[in-house]
Every structure is written in C-alpha cells, then in structure tokens.
Amino acid sequence: MKRKPLTHERIFSNENYAERYAQQHWKMAEKFGQQYTQKLASQGFDQGKIIDVGCGFGATNLVLAERFVESEIVGIDLSEPLLELAREAAEERNLMSEFDLKKRMFIKYLTRRIHLMLPSISTWCIWLITRSKC
Questions:
Q1: What is the pLDDT of residue 127?
Q2: Which domains, ranges and CATH numbers included, belong to the chain?
C-alpha cells in the first residue's frame, strides 16, 4: 500500500494547525480513552502510573484522569503546541495530568515503575504491571 504524502510537518510546531488537528480528532481520542478505561476497569485496574507516549492534545489522558483519579498520568509529545492544548484542557477540568516535551522525559519515566503505557497511535494498550503498589 502506498502512503499519501504528508500535508503537515511530522512534529506540529504551527499553533493554528495544532488547534485544527485537535478539534478534528478530539472525539476520536476521547473514545480511545473510554475504551482504555473500560478495558482496564474490567481487569481490576484502579490506580497506578500511566504514560502516554505521543499524547498529542491530551484528550485520551483526560478521560483516564477523570476515571482513575488516584493515578499518576503523564503525557509525552514532541509538539509544544499540542502539549499546550493538553495543559490548557487539563487545567480547565482541574485535572492533575502532566504533559511533557522532549525525548529525555520518556527515559526519565521509564526508570520509574510504570503500570500502563499507551501507544497513542494504536487502539490497544499494554498493562505492564498489574495490581502492585509503587
């Protein structure tokens, strides 16, 4: 299958484009968050450390933060405009999600004990460590 050429830069640095992108994809990302919370809750997950690599504008993280209020949820992305949208949305909802920029942040969080890693570009999640205290 031949891919279409990108119509945008790989890492969104344009604020207007990032905002349009977030508006177009918000409901889809929320749906992913709802699917993740249902799967996790059905397996007995109620709190832990969750990292979302490639979190974008943070909609998935916000759904998780609303459901798993005792969890530490960290979103990492390379796009500062998308991260700013995520921070603003978390602030508006009084949620304590953390959104960080830079690759080194990923290494920092991998050295901690992580319960869940969300690969944002797919529709599945990995529950790395279940039912354990950190």
A1: 38
A2: 15-127 (3.40.50.150)
